[in-house]
Amino acid sequence: MNLGDLKHKQKAVIVNCQEKQLPLKLMEMGCVDGVEIELLSKAPLGTPLYFKMGDTRIALGKEIVDEIEVTIVDNDENDQDA
Amino acid sequence: MTKMTKTLKIALVGNPNTGKTSLFNKLTGLHKKIGNYPGITVHRVSGQFTLDDGTQIELIDLPGTYSLHPTSKDEEVVLKELLRNTEGIDGILVVADVTNLKRNLILLTELQDLGYPVMLAVNMCDEMQKKGIQIDVEQLRKHLQIPVILVSAKKSRGDGLRQGKGRIHQMKEMIPQMFDMPSKEYFRNYNLTGTNIDFITPDYPNENLYKLWLLYTEQDKFNAYIKENYPKIFDLPFNKTTIKRLLQKEIVKRYKDINHILKDTYKVDKSKATGLTDRIDRILLHKFWGLLIFIFIMFLVFQSIFTWAALPMDWIDGSFSHTAVYFKTHLPANQLTALLTDGLIPGIAGVLIFVPQITLLFLFIALLEEMGYMSRIVFLMDRIMQPFGLSGKSVVPLLSGTACAVPAIMSARTIENAKERLISMLVTPFITCSARLPVYTIIIALIIPEKDVFGFVNLQGLVLLALYLLGFVSALISAYVLSKVIKSKYKRFFILEMPEYKAPILKNVWITVWDNVKAFVFGAGKIIVAFSIILWFLATHGGDKFANAGHYYQMEQTAGNTALPDNLSAYKLEHSYLGQMGKTIEPVIKPLGYDWKIGIALLTSFAAREVFVSTLSTIYSVGNDDEQLLRERLASEHNLITGQKTFTFAVGISLLLFYVFAMQCFSTLATLHHETKTWKWPVIIFFYMTGIAYISALIAYQLLK
């Protein structure tokens, strides 16, 4: 699934980052495989979207969000994951 | 007796939102120089301090960047400065945010790879306890092989105060240590397969490997430099997709290295972390409450520069005219006194009159920026502004423009993207500023009947509203056009870090306000004073008929000239250089329905648009700017040849449209020049706006007359 499919407060892990032609800046800001990402909120018009990605709070445009692949984390794992 | 002192040039580098500027302020105090990098609107800030052993440190504050692969003009500056090092930078002080150390270290490892001596200052250590963070500084120092120190640019309570001050001093003294540490490399071990760079390294055996790699991957930014120094780089095949993959790999490898380094030096106990930012964001980014609060804050900003600033502005205006009167009565009446009292003093007043607005506007901006709210404004407004090529932050200059374009254009400084910043500055003058208001009021009162439409809406008010909307809409349309015309090599992705909310450091706020007021007064201010003196000269000097106005006036009076103005000062203005200019441009403005009298008023409007009213008062010999009297006088004014009314409905509409669009304010042009460091944009915007004004006034008059 894509980051864009994430629901409010849902946590996921970024996967297959290098397969995509993501902007380099995004990876520099911490968007690499295995990093946990959580949807915090959406702007009034649906984009940008606001995430907590690792230690970084980041707002991303819809066009990027749909390019990032993630898998959902099971709920019980959430608390231990760093 | 002179002592030999060493000077070290140290660059201050770090991610955005790491408190880099606060730390810079702490280190250098107010002793700093603000300039511009040549050709671009990126500010170059540097400052100095002295170490205990007398070593002079020149600290250069480079723009915030996430890495050495630029995605904006600001970040490009960092890459260019560090790769070419034309300044002779000796070492780098890296500022990192304690809560986001992992990401911050990406940039640090890149700088180490470039071979620079580096020191790490982990900032905001006052946040550590709150976030449950523990750092083993000694281990970190060993792993990174550089000096490391925990600091806080913020004065905190209790022992923090004592410790904080000491820490800053300790940090200064640690700087020379960075030159004693063996340099560490990461990139060399990455063995990125497909890196063509291996083919040319034998040609440049003494060159830093990572520097060659950066030149190769970012070669479009270094054409001339590569051609001159490393021509072999251009022999290598260059495939964008392959290179991007390699760069992605490089980042992943760097993260791996950093994870390894931080594994036993950096610990976070998440149970101790307080989610203050989460809680605030839940309100401030709420679809309804968030927008409402945003509107309220913008209203407050608007209110402050529109209403609160009026009091000190009146005071400045009043005290300067009192000073002028004082000098006029106490100094001998000659040309020099006139220059002082009618040229220089009003000129300086014309600069200082903007200070209250600039102070208040930047007070708000600095506070909002310090607290982390500016990024939230971008988040809330981006989708609305982006189709017009503007940033979410462009809301601030556009809104402030309703008071005055001068502080508004300056407020565009906070926009990171160079293209969006430029467009915001260029379209702000379209917004109806408060100086247009007196012009609108008098013309509307003249040509629009005072009646209600639909039973309750005042027609005059409706026209005024339409003029405001017209200004706003043309700003947006122009922004759209400009965004298509101005090229940027950087593709626009919306990636924005949202910093944690923080209590503002008041000292930083004051420094920001002070820097901006200073920049305006001594930058744009000089041009404004020069312009006002020129304008004064043109209005108070003239040919023979001006010099001997009394004589000629009496002569024409006895000759029975019916076109003669009612008094001498109007006659003098008519025959001044400015009056001559008004007459010269008459053929040009005649198709718009204006005579030379309006022509003079258009020219004097350059000092400030509201001068239109007082100029007409002089021309029509109405004393003391009495608007009621002036309106009656204008209404009864007839063209002597055709016998028609001068201020018909058609002329009025034509004038209104002209004032909506025309660029008639040299303070705005001076500010634009100061902010863009070129006359190109002020000149373009002058002809663009005045061109639109001319055409729309022409069409309106020709259709309505």
Report what the structure shows.
The complex is a heterodimer of chains A (82) and B (705). With 82 residues, chain A is mainly beta. Chain A has a single domain (3-75), classed as SH3 type barrels. Chain A is 11% helix and 32% strand. Chain A is built from two helices and five strands. In chain A, a hairpin with a 6-residue loop joins strand 2 and strand 3. The model of chain A is unreliable at 77-82 (pLDDT under 50). With 705 residues, chain B is α/β, with parallel strands linked by helices. Helix content of chain B is 58%, strand content 8%. Chain B has 33 helices and twelve strands. A seven-stranded mixed sheet of chain B has the order 2-3-4-1-5-6-8, with helices on both faces. The longest helix of chain B has 35 residues, at 506-540. Chain B is elongated, with a radius of gyration of 31 Å.
Quick structural summary:
The complex is a heterodimer of chains A (82) and B (705). By secondary structure, chain A is mainly β. In chain A, 11% of the residues lie in helices and 32% in strands.
Give the SSE layout.
The complex is a heterodimer of chains A (82) and B (705).
Chain A: E1 11-15, H1 24-28, E2 36-42, E3 49-53, E4 56-60, H2 62-65, E5 69-72
Chain B: E1 7-14, H1 20-28, E2 32-36, E3 43-50, E4 56-61, H2 73-84, E5 91-97, H3 101-113, E6 118-123, H4 128-131, E7 133-135, H5 137-144, E8 148-150, H6 159-174, H7 197-200, H8 209-217, H9 223-229, H10 240-262, E9 266-268, H11 276-284, H12 289-308, H13 310-330, H14 335-352, H15 355-371, H16 373-385, H17 395-400, H18 405-411, H19 418-427, H20 437-447, E10 452-453, E11 457-458, H21 459-485, E12 495-497, H22 506-540, H23 544-547, H24 549-559, H25 568-575, H26 577-584, H27 586-589, H28 596-604, H29 611-619, H30 627-636, H31 649-661, H32 666-676, H33 680-704
Parallel strand pairs in B: 1-4, 1-5, 5-6, 6-8
Antiparallel strand pairs in B: 2-3, 3-4, 7-9, 10-11
Helix pairs in contact in B: 3-10, 12-15, 13-14, 14-22, 15-18, 15-22, 18-32, 19-21, 20-30, 20-31, 21-31, 22-32, 25-26, 26-28, 28-29, 31-33, 32-33
